Each structure stands twice: as structure tokens, then as C-alpha cells.
């Protein structure tokens, strides 16, 4: 299994959810995040006003997926999150040792 993590613009989360559901993703975790990238939070504009903090509000989306699906899911995330402007976010993949579906005890790909 892989864990796909995406840091995206908060206003993109509904589009991302729809796109992932269309792809067939059956679960995900969304959490609030803050951070900065290469511009160190200085030059991005949020809803028309320049943000005054170094840390910009972002949304983290995490999806546990079978190995074979990870690359396509990254493509879905990147194409949906892209606006062409600085601050669109970042997506990465990490290897996952094991996952368990708590109710059934299923493990591995069957659990995600
Ligand atoms: N190297 C990194 N490690 C962890 N999180 C990061 C990293 N770079 C960016 N992020 C997270 O992603 C968010 C969005 O990053 P951002 O899109 O600004 O990246 P960037 O590399 O500056 O690209 P761009 O030039 O398109 O803005 C940041 O606010 C931060 O939360
Ligand atoms: Mg940036």
C-alpha cells in the first residue's frame, strides 16, 4: 500500500473529493494545515488580500491506496488542484507497511 498525501488550497477540497470519488477512492482523511513553500508565504494572495502571515492556510488530504492506484491518484490530485498560481500545493507518496480495517480485521489492500 501507499499513502498519498496532498497539501492543497482549502477551496479545492470539494473538487478534489468529487474527483477522487469518481476515480473510485473509498476513504480519505482531510485535515487543516498551515505551511509555506518556496515563496515562504510572502507573495501569495488569498481571496484578494495579501496574506500577512508566513504560514498560509492549506488543507491536507491523505488517501491510503493499493500500490497500483497510487500514480493515477496523484494525477487526479495534481490536475484538480492546479490553478497555475504559486501556492497550488504539493503531493507525495510514502510506502505503507500495513493497514487494518478495524471492523473486519482485514489487512493490506483489502483494508483500504
Ligand atoms: N518541502 C515541503 N515539505 C513539506 N510541505 C511542503 C513543502 N513545500 C510545500 N509544502 C506545503 O505545501 C504548501 C503549498 O506549497 P507551494 O504550492 O507554495 O509549494 P512551492 O514549492 O512553493 O510551489 P509554488 O512555487 O508553485 O508555490 C505549503 O504551504 C506547505 O504546507
Ligand atoms: Mg509556493
Topology pattern, helix = H, strand = E: EHEEEEHE
Query: What is the CATH architecture term?
Result: 2-Layer Sandwich
Q: Rg to the nearest angstrom?
A: 15 Å
**β-strand amount:** 25-35%
Structure description:
By secondary structure, the protein is an alpha+beta fold. It has a single domain, classed as Alpha-Beta Plaits (2-Layer Sandwich). It has two helices and six strands, in the order βαββββαβ. It has helices at 13-23, 70-81; strands spanning 2-8, 29-35, 45-46, 49-50, 56-65, 89-95. A four-stranded antiparallel beta sheet has the order 2-5-1-6, with helices on one face. A two-stranded antiparallel sheet has the order 3-4. Strand 3 (45-46) and strand 4 form a beta hairpin. Helix 1 (13-23) packs antiparallel against helix 2 (70-81). The chain is elongated, with a radius of gyration of 15 Å. 19% of the residues are buried. The mean pLDDT is 93. It binds adenosine-5'-triphosphate and magnesium ion. Residues 7, 33, 35-39, 56, 58, 86-90 line the site of adenosine-5'-triphosphate (ATP). Magnesium ion (MG) is lined by residues 37-39, 86-87.
